Amino acid sequence: MSDLRSFLKSVQDETVTISEPLSREFEIAAALKKFDGEKIVVIEKEKETGTRVVGGVSGTRDRILKGLETNINDLYSSIIRATNSPVKCKVGDGPVKEFVKKGRLSDIPVLTHFKGDPGPYITSGIVYIKDAGGEHENVSFHRLLVLDDKRMSIRIVPRHLYRMTQRAKEKGLRSLDVSISLGLHPAVMIAGSLTAPFGTSEFNVVNNFLGGELTLTECEHVDALAPADAELVLEGKLRLDETATEGPFVDLSGTFDVKRQQPVVELVGVMHREDYIYQALLPSGSEHRLMMGLPKEPRIWEYVGAIVPHVRGVNMTLGGMGWLHCVVSFEKFREGDPKNVLMATFAAHPSLKHAVVVDSDIDPYNMEQVEWAIATRFKGDEDLLLVPNVRVSSLDPAGDQEKELGCKVGIDATKPMFKDQEGFRRAEIPTDDRLEKLLRKYY
Ligand SMILES: Cc1cc2nc3c(=O)[nH]c(=O)nc-3n(C[C@H](O)[C@H](O)[C@H](O)COP(=O)(O)O)c2cc1C
What we know:
Structural class: alpha+beta
Largest sheet: 9 strands, antiparallel
Helix content: 10-25%
Distance between the termini: 36 Å
Bound molecules: flavin mononucleotide
Radius of gyration: 23 Å
Shape: globular
Number of strands: 21
């Protein structure tokens, strides 16, 4: 099964359910913030509509791995394999068609998250688009600011969806049909943040993970596909001749992004399950950061793996907002390896600002160990790589956000090979199974 409901059943012990009605304005966001990075939050009733709302579904790395039915050691090779061998999804009907109507945005409990937000924002929506001949498809996450009952402004960073809009404009088209899907299994959700070659549907990529079981359905009001077992699908016309103000939006950094003129999406239809669950995603929360950063890790793993024999792991860290900081743990064979690894890491993810490389005895997902490696193995005058005046992320408030220029810093926190290795060894306390078992009882 590849729907949100089946996944929620499998993680009940990681879920907190709030039975008191909460408001879509700030109250639900506050509940999501309270349990961010730990629990899935189910709000049984949104105050105005009585709709069930769920957030934080993919808020931990372990839950994403569970959703993808893989483990951390196989994750990167599986994502690369799936990206190289997409499997075409079946097309049929599904529960998302239990209700088909014209719809109004005010009937949907779209959340206002932060003081200073310009209005309610849809943040967990995955946009599907195909061109007229159906030759090129794309799936990607896009935030949508609700402007009124029928219009939203959509943030489109120049990537594949942007390229499709440019091509359509060149052909003289005035709009493109899109579906915006919410309420998805984590494995389907991740389609929105994977990058497959231009024209490839990322739904087909995740279908590889799902053993060919992902079924899409034809929308009723637009020429677009959407997961047949989504909770809610908004059917829209992405206007190529109309823009509106988008922002300021609280992005990954937890600070406000700038306001921009962005295209308008006009709502022309809604499909949903009878008792649909509205899926929320807290901007700048763990889920946002993980869903952005984790899909970038396989490429870093691949680039670094091309220059050293073994990469233990790659962590686009939560503290680095899943986007600006990365830790790579690898097996060092030559004294000069770490700086090459740093350069490969920066090349694989151009938005990166700071990278730390550590030896393979350091767990890259354990930030206390990483900091310990910096404290005990790094010497600032020899082990620092500085790259000034280089492209960084527009999301870095310290950089030049217009020109996307900044400085990259690489930290080599690996042991110098020419020094006695004994001095870098972490002391251990001997233990055995009996003692471990005994101590676990008290833990
Ligand atoms: C929760 C979330 C929200 C996102 N919001 C946006 C957005 O508003 N605009 C955008 O262009 N990309 C956004 N992204 C990033 C893209 O969806 C992501 O980079 C995707 O891989 C781009 O697809 P493409 O490579 O097929 O172009 C978001 C990602 C996540 C995880």
